[in-house]
């Protein structure tokens, strides 16, 4: 990158930082807390290497700075939730989302004392590792995606251990959840913005329970499902069929997706024992085995092309996470407390938003969305 580009990038980041901080920390009751919030966020943007509190302090101050920033994140009294709401409202104004994408995040850990840490299977790596697992809620538009909320998934071993709960200061109402359940609850927590659909990967999980929860909440959904999940398709007879069987029967009904050639799509109305207003979406690519992806929606009036376009926000979020996570310090919190983890993740999300917004202003992206990287049903 040229020096001129670096100067323009830094100037854009400073401009977005100033604009965001004007409202982001309004809920913090004291002036010194608001000042520390700005300093921590500035340090996340400026620090090189791992975004530990020590490196953040070195980027903006000295050893005394490290001490009070550690207290600000790990031991202070300010609440992360109002700050996240302010962040979500800011992102909504800057780039209104097409959907909320819920994405799992594994954060590898060396020890066993960080809140929520345990043995977690990493699908991308194909093995189990010692890690925290969280579900992030991402505001997803074609030109900007950013995480605006987080839910830390805790295992029964954590929520059932009084000593662990006390040491990490886990609130009484926090309970053990499955990955999909955790993701759905994270989405439902963005209550003020629930008119946008939830986009989530439900393969390998209890889809029925999630459907019931979302139906009761009146929430729109687009969920990736496995080919073995079973439905009743009224036009194909009374017997339950796998999702793959339903879409295989619609091979001749595939249609090109406008603006996304060589993608093809087909839809079928399907039922489950508890839901009778669902649409199964098949997506494939010309010249490849059909179908290559299967999605379930509770929005029967939405055209197939719009559902496909919305599904493509999932790889866009994956792409942006890979691009900004290390720069924003998303995986770098080293404390052990539940509240400290949430405070750091809130400010790391704000840092991600600043970086992504600044990049969008200096190097606008084309409107064409990326195609899915993984095509296994």
From TrEMBL:
Q: Which residues form a coiled coil?
A: none
Q: Answer whether the UniProt record assigns the keyword Secreted to this protein.
A: no
Ranges for domain Transposase IS701-like DDE: 24-238
The protein, known as: DDE superfamily endonuclease
The source's superkingdom equals Bacteria
| Family matches, as InterPro entries | IS701-like, IS701-like_DDE_dom
Q: Name one GO molecular function term.
A: endonuclease activity
**Which keywords accompany this UniProt record?**
Endonuclease, Hydrolase, Nuclease
Pfam families referenced in this protein's UniProt entry, alphabetically: DDE_5
Q: Lineage of this protein's species?
A: Bacteria, Bacillati, Actinomycetota, Actinomycetes, Pseudonocardiales
Q: What species is given as this protein's source?
A: Actinokineospora terrae
């Amino acid at each position: 990158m040229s020096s001129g580009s670096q100067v323009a990038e830094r100037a854009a980041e400073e401009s977005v930082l100033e604009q965001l901080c004007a409202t982001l920390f309004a809920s913090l009751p004291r002036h010194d807390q608001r000042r520390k919030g700005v300093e921590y966020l500035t340090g996340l943007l400026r620090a090189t290497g791992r975004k530990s509190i020590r490196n953040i302090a070195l980027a903006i101050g000295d050893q005394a700075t490290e001490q009070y920033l550690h207290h600000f994140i790990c031991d202070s009294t300010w609440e992360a939730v109002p700050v996240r709401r302010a962040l979500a409202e800011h992102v909504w104004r800057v780039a209104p989302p097409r959907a909320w994408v819920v994405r799992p995040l594994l954060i590898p850990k060396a020890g066993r004392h960080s809140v929520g840490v345990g043995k977690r299977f990493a699908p991308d790596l194909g093995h189990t590792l010692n890690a925290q697992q969280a579900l992030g809620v991402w505001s997803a538009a074609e030109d900007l995606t950013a995480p605006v909320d987080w839910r830390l998934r805790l295992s029964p071993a954590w929520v059932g251990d009084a000593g662990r709960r006390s040491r990490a200061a886990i609130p009484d109402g926090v309970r053990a959840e499955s990955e999909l359940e955790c993701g759905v609850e994270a989405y439902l927590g963005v209550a003020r913005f629930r008119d946008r659909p939830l986009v989530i990967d439900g393969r390998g999980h209890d889809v029925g329970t999630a459907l019931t929860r979302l139906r009761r909440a009146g929430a729109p959904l687009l969920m990736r499902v496995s080919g073995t999940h079973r439905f009743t398709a009224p036009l194909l007879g009374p017997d339950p069929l796998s999702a793959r069987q339903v879409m295989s029967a619609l091979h001749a009904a595939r249609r090109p997706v406008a603006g996304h050639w060589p993608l093809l799509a087909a839809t079928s109305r399907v039922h489950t024992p508890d839901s009778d207003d669902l649409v199964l979406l098949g997506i494939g690519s010309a010249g490849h085995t059909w179908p290559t992806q299967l999605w379930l929606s509770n929005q029967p009036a939405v055209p197939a092309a719009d559902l496909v376009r919305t599904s493509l926000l999932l790889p866009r979020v994956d792409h942006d996470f890979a691009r900004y996570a290390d720069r924003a310090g998303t995986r770098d919190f080293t404390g052990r407390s539940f509240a400290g983890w949430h405070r750091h993740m809130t400010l790391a999300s704000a840092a991600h938003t600043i970086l992504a917004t600044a990049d969008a202003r200096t190097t606008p992206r084309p409107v064409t969305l990326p195609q899915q990287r993984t095509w296994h049903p």
